[in-house]
Amino acid sequence: MANVLPDLRYTREHEWAKKEGGRIRVGITAYAQEQLGDVVFVELPKVGAKLTAHQAFGVVESVKAVSDLFAPISGEVADANAELGQKPETVNQDPYGKGWMLVVSPSNAKEWEQLLTAAQYEEFLAQGAH
Amino acid sequence: MKRTPLFSAHLQAGARMVPFGGWEMPVQYRGIIEEHRTVRAAVGCFDVSHMGEFEIEGPGALATLQRLTTNDVAALEIGQVQYSLLCRADGGIVDDLTLYRLAEDRYLMVVNAGNIDKDWTHVTTAVPADGARWRNVSDATGLIAVQGPKAEALVGRLADQDVTRIGYYRFAHGKVGGVAALISRTGYTGEDGFELYVAAGETERLWKALLDGGRADGVAPIGLGARDTLRLEMRYALYGNDIDDTTNPLEAGLGWVVKPAKGDFLGRAAIEAMRAKGPARKLVGLEMADRSVARHGYPVVKDGAPTGIVTSGTFGPSVERSIALAYVATAHGAVGAELGVEIRGQAKPARVVKTPFHPPKVKKG
């Protein structure tokens, strides 16, 4: 089973969210990158773009497949990981670290509580859900 | 879903299995890009036992094959291999294949796994096999491709003969790792290498001999994912993606295996009619400006207007860019033409480039 970090929150689409002061850092989980295989392209919104929870905000392409990225929370993009343009494979190598995708200034703090906890996400994975 | 004799070996090696043409096949073991690079830099082993093999034997074999296939079978010597096509009367491609001349009146036809049933019906009914008999030996045959710059050293060490003497698109009979094999200097990667045909029951023994015997060479098992990126960098057509019943050999750039001077064959009149007129579309290589992947079925546009369709696309690990094959209007298909591929509603810049995308390193002569 791919690793799940205890202090993060998760979506059923396999994004993770991490509180950093008033902002939320977002990426995809170890399980997601493993399922995708070699990531070759990541398309992210620009700083200042508005996100809506559960809506697609970008895409990640692997050699075999293309997948939408879904916003864990609504808000405004405060930062996007420009490194992924040149080194998309970072998503495979370090999905919870250098492979992060966005930093978001959330517009609705309540949405955080609707995200899956690590235990809930682990259970979701254990059920074999995709 | 059908399984090859190596199914359990793949599971033990941690392969991710996927459905492919009715078969349960390994798409990757450790990762497509790593496997791709192993083949370009060292040597990899592919299970391609799902491919179909038909034998035809008898004094009428040559005449039957001349009527069925587009290339000139009379030019094929014993011990030689020929790339060819089966076509319909309307010029559509039934399958692409390799043909081996085993003896004076005996040939082996190797076809795509997903087409075995269709091809069998075609070859046994489209042309009367007067004085010849067909045999479908697909299930009895295992096939392992050994590809990469170190393939010759690896196969040579395990073989009972000097394999350096086998030229490109030539074959010999011998033993590899103690297993009786047809040793063919062919492949689908653009690297030097061999395809080893063995009895189905011996496939696993040969597989283990190759992986054990090639450790010092850095050998690894390679899945269908890397097989696809390797062949696409060479612009080798994949049946079902780039060619099918609705595509003509001339559009696909396969005119070099169509030999009308040899006499009549299925599809000849239609192909010659198209040759006289010039094909309206052609299969070209595209290079994307960014790393987004142009995938099968994505529209190709010229100045916003539709001009074609992508048939295969990937990120090429050796060329380190996003590449594709697409049918485009002949007028827009010249090398250097600036086109677009519609990806998620946006026309992404693409340029027509020379193919192969990556220089082939197959054995010369």
Summarize the structure.
The complex is a heterodimer of chains A (130) and B (365). Chain A has five helices and nine strands.
What keywords describe this structure?
heterodimer, A: 130 residues, alpha+beta, OB fold (Dihydrolipoamide Acetyltransferase, E2P), six-stranded antiparallel sheet, three-stranded antiparallel sheet, 9 strands, 22% helix, 34% strand, globular, B: 365 residues, Gyrase A, domain 2, Alpha-Beta Plaits, Elongation Factor Tu (Ef-tu), domain 3, 3 domains, six-stranded mixed sheet, six-stranded antiparallel barrel, 19 strands
3D structure, described in words:
- The complex is a heterodimer of chains A (130) and B (365).
- Chain A has 130 residues and is of the alpha+beta class.
- Chain A has one domain (9-126): OB fold (Dihydrolipoamide Acetyltransferase, E2P), CATH 2.40.50.
- Chain A has 5 helices and 9 strands.
- Chain B is an alpha+beta fold.
- Chain B has 3 domains: 7-48 and 140-233, Probable tRNA modification gtpase trme, domain 1 (Gyrase A, domain 2), CATH 3.30.1360.120; 52-136, Aminomethyltransferase beta-barrel domains (Alpha-Beta Plaits); 280-353, Aminomethyltransferase beta-barrel domains (Elongation Factor Tu (Ef-tu), domain 3, Beta Barrel).
- Chain B has helices spanning 7-12, 32-41, 61-68, 116-125, 151-158, 203-213, 224-233, 268-277; strands at residues 16-20, 23-28, 44-47, 52-57, 81-87, 93-103, 106-111, 133-136, 141-147, 171-176, 179-184, 193-199, 220-221, 281-288, 299-302, 305-316, 321-329, 338-343, 346-353.
- Chain B has a 6-stranded mixed β-sheet with strand order 10-11-12-9-3-13.
- In chain B, helix 2 (32-41) crosses helix 7 (224-233).
- The two termini of chain B are 40 Å apart.
- The mean pLDDT of chain B is 97.
- Classes of the chains: A alpha+beta (130), B alpha+beta (365).
- The A-B interface holds A 37-38, 40-41, 43, 59, 61, 63-64, 66, 88-89, 92 and B 27-28, 31-34, 225, 229, 290-293, 295, 314-315, 322, 344.
